[in-house]
Amino acid sequence: MRDELLYIGKKIIDNKQELAIQFSDLMDSEYKRKLVYHEESEVLKWRAELIEYLGESLFEERSVVLKKIVQWGTDIGKVAVENGLSLSQTLKSLALFRTVIWGVFTEELQQKQFAPITMLDVSKKIDPMLDQLNHIFVEIYEEHNTDTIKRAYAALEELSVPIVPLTPGVAVMPIIGEIDTHRSTLIMQTGLDKSAHMELSHLILDISGVQIVDTMIVNNLFNLVQALRLLGIETILTGIRPEIAQTSVRLGIDFRKINTKATLEQALEGIGFRRVMNK
After folding, report:
1. What distance in Å separates the CA atoms of residue 8 and residue 221, rounded to the nearest whole number?
2. In this model, does residue 196 exceed pLDDT 80?
3. What's the pLDDT score for residue 208?
4. pLDDT tens, residue by residue, 126-161
5. What is the 3-state secondary structure (H, E, C) of 94-132?
6. Which of 13, 41, 74, 146 is deepest in the core (most CB within 10 A)?
7. Number of Cα atoms under 13 Å in the Cβ half of residue 54
8. What is the layout of strands, in order, in the sheet containing 259-261?
9. CA trace torsion 85, 159, 228, 233 (10° rounding)
């Protein structure tokens, strides 16, 4: 049995280049197009390497071959992600390695009249290696997707709390939409970090786009104003609509501790900006 596996494994290794070429012929045009930034010889080399490892798995120590398989899968999985191949395309390609290996040797194996148990042993050694690659590719794609989502979420968070510079030392932070605990913390952090980085003297907080103001929101705004004051930055709150003012009165919220203006224009006028009229 071992001699038969050794024979088959050596045959696979000896024909790895031919098998790699046959593999390429089986791939669809979309798969090939996304690998356009790599030389064809380089891609064939990657495939021939895996075919060689699969051949070695029939007669070499499993742990030795598995180490090579893991390294190959890690490297190629990253290449697949970088080239925009979908996970389904990548996993589908692995199935073709079984096809090319069995396709080339079917006739010869029949002539050798290997016992069915030999073919079963071949599958029992090669299939776990390909299954391991499946697992590695799935992990790489999951990690990539998680990182992509995190970056997108971070970018979305940054856009949800923008600070717009108006002139050196003056900026406005327009707050729009619902403010929950997480976003309230983000407003505090962004307001402090960016105001200090931009070396502001005045920051205008415009809440005209906020539908609901409760004690939690106001307390956080108070904390932000006090923290900015410690940094030497004057804060002006604008955009308090009549319904918010009425709600605030009912809740006992006192805005007198914060410099407030009805509009952004009034806030700018209060710090020395004047409208220039064209005549």
Report:
1. 74
2. yes
3. 84
4. 999 999 999 999 999 999 999 988 887 777 666 678
5. HHHHHHHHHHHHHHHHHHHCCCHHHHHHHHHHHHHHHHH
6. 13
7. 34
8. 164-167, 170-176, 202-209, 234-238, 259-261
9. 120
Output the CA torsion 8→9→13→17 (10° steps): 50
Block residue for tokens 């075919």: 51
Three-state SS annotation for 17-55: HHHHHHHHHHCCHHHHHCCCCCCHHHHHHHHHHHHHHHH
Q: How far is CA 166 from CA 25, 104, 131, 156, 170, in A?
A: 59, 71, 58, 22, 6
- 195: nearest Cα among 154, 250, 233, 224: 233
Handedness of CA 250, 256, 261, 267 (dihedral sign): negative
Q: How confident is the model at residue 38 (pLDDT cuts 50, 70, 90)?
A: low
Pairing relationship of beta strands 164-167 and 202-209 according to DSSP bridges: unpaired
Task: Tell me the per-residue pLDDT of 76-131, one tens digit each, with 9 for 90 and over.
Answer: 999 989 888 888 888 888 888 888 888 766 666 666 667 778 878 888 999 999 99
Rounded to 5°, the CA angle 58-59-61 comes to 105
Question: What are the structure tokens assigned to 205, written together?
Answer: 């907080």
pLDDT tens-digit readout, 169-180? 999 999 888 777
Q: What gap in Å lies between CA 233 and CA 226, rounded to an integer?
A: 9
The rounded distance, in Å, linking the Cα atoms of 199 and 240 is 26
Q: Does 35 or 188 have the greater pLDDT score?
A: 188
Q: Which helix or strand (DSSP H or E) is residue 75 part of?
A: helix 62-82
Maximum separation of any 2 CA atoms in the chain, in Å: 101
pTM of the predicted model over 0.85: no
**What's the per-residue H, E or C state across 239-277?**
CCCHHHHHHHHHHCCCHHHCEEECCHHHHHHHCCCCCCC
